[in-house]
Amino acid sequence: MMMPSTTSEVSELTFEIPQGRPGQRLLRELRQQYELREGPRLSREAVYLDTHDGRLHAQSRALWSSEGVLQLESLDRPDPRTRIDLDGLPGFADRLPPGGLRDELVPLTRNRALLELFSVRSRERTWSRWNRDRKTVLRVSVSQDEASDGKRTARLGSFVVVRQVRGYKKIFREVCEWWEKRGVQAGDGSRYRKAVEALGLDPLRAASVSRAKLDASMTAAEAVRAMIRAQYQVARANQEGVLNDTDAEFLHDFRVAVRRARSYLGQLRDVFAAESGARLRKNLSWLGKSTNVLRDLDVYLEHQADYRSLLAAPLTEDITPLFEFAARERETAYRALAGVMGSGDYDAAMQRWRSSVEDDSGLGTGRRGAEPALSLAGARVARKCRAVLEQGARLRNQKDAAAFHSLRIECKQLRYLMEILGDLMPEAKGAVQRLKKLQDALGRIQDLTVHEARTQDFAQAMSAAGDGRALPAAEVLVSRMRVQRELACARVPELFAQFSRSLRETEPPYVMLLPWLRRIQDD
After folding, report:
1. DSSP labels for 64-117?
2. Which of 34, 127, 480, 501 is the most exposed place for a label (fewest CB within 10 A)?
């Protein structure tokens, strides 16, 4: 992004100068014309951070730490940088000191772990201009920058930073205009995009949503194979994070990739040869089940603060031993999963997944595999959409957790199908957001149902081991969870009505695909 030529509202501008002799000649001219005095030579390193799925990058933000200062900058706007003094690198945004940077980062990262993306090392020469009273009226620095991500190293070029000294705006403006007259325009001052490009990085490399490119000319077999291949890549990208145990969301994204791939195979099973498709579904089922216990405990512990808030003092402290017990159970589950992922069975399962989709012959072609992808996906969306609407219409005054769980599974499968259709037909994307709200509400009901049982099991296990400290608080918490579940159930009919209404009101393809929608009543 180019900065405006005016310098009336900025105190610092950065210019990328030509490499080699042309750049050196310009620097000599600048030093001679403005009688710049050489200062100390410095070496600096800035470490750039992002979540594993590039949430800051997606919002055009760059977060970096250098010399005990953590800074967040906008890559698209010349906004002032938000910064704090901080020794070391932050692990999570919510562990930063209270203040503006924390408030800005938490919603951007949604509290995923902040990991090192790359570092930029700068060898810097400093110059200054003095007036007759030997006071500094201008500061200039020249740096040679080099980026590294631990695997690759790339030179970023040479940069001149011109800094205004308070009270001496005229000389600052003059030097900036000197550069612009020589065809060297001011840049945004950020090394981030240059480093990403030079290192060939994709900060969105582990996003949990498939990045497969689909188009309406694809056959059903081609499109589904591409989607399953993309999910394999997502799972592989998150595997190291699961094993390192730095962020529970690595496991979540791994599970979502497995679940999506399995759903595509299950709902579009006629696309591939029956035997090979069934083998891969069984393979994926094993991978998914191996992660169930750890993920359940991760979600339980993530809600710890919410559950404490349901209790009055002193029960908020009395419940602590129960969560400590849950954390120990979680460590046991993590070690068990790490053992699975380090086994030959796991390597074989991942290899079968990869080999099944790496070429056209891996899964074969079923009786409907040669059909246009849009036609088959549209028909399956229509069928699944009808199942969701008919189940949802029966939920009024319903309190049975099993019924809500069944609808949740149907919604999840519908959403995966709608995302395929959305890639092929952008008009289909609007209804996905309403479906996600409904799905989230149903997920909350399921979490509360599972966590109620978990709380009872933990309290009983502790009591059986001779530790009954948390039992009274656990009994109160279970009753409060039931109240919360009833409130969550009460929200579902309205969210369901909003979703079903959005299908009627949308433009094609849904009016065309689902002509029977008009017969489904909100009540």
Report:
1. EEETTEEEEEESSS-PPPEEEE-SS--S-GGGSPSSHHHHHHHHHHTT---EEE
2. 501
Q: Is 403 exposed, middle or buried (0-12, 13-18, 19+ CB in 10 A)?
A: middle
Q: How far apart are CA 193 and CA 202, in angstroms?
A: 11
Complete edge-to-edge strand list for the sheet that includes strand 115-130? 82-85, 69-74, 61-66, 37-50, 115-130, 136-148, 153-164, 12-17, 186-187
Write the single-letter amino acid at 327: A
Say if residue 210's pLDDT is above 60.
no
- CA–centroid distance for 215 within its chain: 25
For the segment 72-85, the average pLDDT, to the nearest whole number, is 83
What residues contact 273, with CB distance under 8 A and at least 6 apart?
363, 364, 365, 366
**Hey, what amino acid is at 211?**
R
H or E element that contains 519: none
Helix (H) or strand (E) holding 430: helix 430-464
What is the Cα–Cα distance from 198 to 117, expressed in whole angstroms?
13
H or E element that contains 47: strand 37-50
Token pair listed for 153:
């190293």
Rg of the Cα atoms in the chain:
29
Residue 257 reports pLDDT greater than 50: yes
Residue type, 472: P
Count of CA atoms in the C-beta half-sphere (13 A) of 437: 15
Exposed, middle or buried: residue 258 (CB in 10 Å: 0-12, 13-18, 19+)?
A: buried
Q: How far apart are CA 268 and CA 280, in angstroms?
A: 13
Q: Are 120 and 48 in contact (CB under 8 A)?
A: yes
- Alpha-carbon distance of 18 to 15, in angstroms, equals 10
How far, in Å, are 110, 310, 388, 409 from residue 405 at the CA level?
A: 26, 24, 12, 6
**The tokens of 479 are what?**
């009753």
For residue 134, CA distances in Å to 128, 436, 499 come to 11, 65, 72
Residue 469: DSSP 8-state: T
Amino acid identity of residue 4, one-letter, is: P
Q: What are the Cα distances from residue 2, in Å, to 6, 86, 185, 330? A: 12, 30, 7, 50
pLDDT band at 6 (very low <50, low <70, confident <90, very high): very low
Look at phi and psi of residue 118 and say left if phi exceeds 0, alpha if psi is from -120 to 50, else beta: beta
> pTM of the predicted model, to two decimals?
0.76
Over residues 62-78, the pLDDT tens digits come to: 999 999 999 998 888 76
Higher pLDDT, 500 or 438: 438
Q: What is the pLDDT of residue 72?
A: 93
Mean pLDDT of all residues in the chain? Answer: 86
